[in-house]
Specification:
By secondary structure, this protein is an all-alpha fold. It has a single domain, classed as Globin-like, CATH 1.10.490. The protein is 74% helix and 0% strand. The protein has 6 helices and no strands. Helix 4 crosses helix 6 and helix 5 packs antiparallel against helix 6. The protein starts with 6 loop residues before the first helix and ends with a helix.
Amino acid sequence: MNDIRNREDIELLVNSFYDKVRVDNTIGYIFNNVAAVDWIIHLPKMYSFWETVLLDKRSFKGNPMVAHIQLSRKTEMNQTHFDKWLKLWNATIDEHFKGNIAKEAQQRGKNIAGLMLHKIKNYKN
């Protein structure tokens, strides 16, 4: 297995991850029903987000924190949801990649999930 090296690898990671998310019993409904994600629009944003985070390409523009806080107004998003997100994220990375950037992707996923959950909790309080 190779490490995450380029945009094509990011696209494989993101597509494979969201294939799992869409059918997951714990978080799938948030994406499919509550957020009603338009995947044609969302996936390229996620490619750019992770390309920026992992490959330092600076291709992402946006504020994912605001989007998630707004989504948390529509449905509960708690530790269980973020734990499942992270479990699926890590499993997807492990299925496709091995190396320093793959490890970094898992660490960044953990950090992002923790920060988002923290911000959502504090926003509601």
